[in-house]
Amino acid sequence: MTHAPASLILASRSPTRARMLRDAGIPFKTAAARIDERAVEAPLSEADLPPADIAEVLAIAKAEAVSGGNPGALVIGCDQLLAFEGALLHKVEDMEGARRRLLQLSGKTHHLHSAVAIVRDGEVLWSHVDPAAITFRPLTPAFVGRHLAEAGEAVLGSVGAYQIEGLGVQLFERVEGDFFAIMGLPLLPLLAELRRLGALEA
């Protein structure tokens, strides 16, 4: 007797992550994880946990938060942290913040840590973190202003205030890491694990 694959739930409000799964042909539902990310992160940062470990803890916490109300489902939690010069940077709130963020990163290298986890019935089945290093080319304030005017408020959905899949690619001098992970979801490792769990056809 064969069993139907478990339902998949993406514990994220990110339209980019949802689009990545849809484009890959993955059937899923979304359910926002209602956790205070900064409250979870604060003691971990104070304990000097590496950014990759903090991102993994946050991804697991999001999946666990949604798993409780969805018995039997495979819940996918995600998180992405930006580490820059010894600090963790978070999403900016407005376009002025985006302007400052791009000028802050101008001519320098920052690191992204993209984490994904799968939880079922409160049990962590799997987790994974992909690192990436992104070097900005030197940017002038005039270019940043024109770039943001064209890119629009969509950049506010990214911790770096850019979208590598769009106009943001013009900001970079060098990119080292997986393209999907930079967009916010280590998609290939996730698909491999979903196949291993029987949630996708192998």
Summarize the structure in short.
By secondary structure, this protein is of the alpha/beta class. It has one domain: Maf protein (Alpha-Beta Complex).
What does this structure look like?
The protein is of the alpha/beta class and 202 residues long. It has one domain: Alpha-Beta Complex (Maf protein). It is built from seven helices and seven strands, in the order E-H-E-H-H-E-E-H-E-E-H-E-H-H. Helix 2 (37-46) packs antiparallel against helix 3 (51-67). The mean pLDDT is 94. Strands 1, 2, 3, 4, 5, 6 and 7 form a seven-stranded mixed β-sheet that branches.
List the helices and strands and how they pair.
Elements: E1 8-10, H1 15-23, E2 29-30, H2 37-46, H3 51-67, E3 74-84, E4 87-89, H4 95-105, E5 109-120, E6 123-136, H5 141-151, E7 172-176, H6 179-183, H7 187-196
Parallel strand pairs: 1-2, 1-3
Antiparallel strand pairs: 3-4, 3-5, 5-6, 6-7
Helix pairs in contact: 2-3, 4-5
Please give the radius of gyration in angstroms: 17 Å
- By CATH reckoning, the class would read Alpha Beta
| Residue share in helix | 25-40%
SS strand fraction: 15-25%
Helices and strands, in N-to-C order? Answer: EHEHHEEHEEHEHH
Q: Main traits of this protein?
A:
Maf protein; globular; alpha/beta; 7-stranded mixed β-sheet; 202 residues
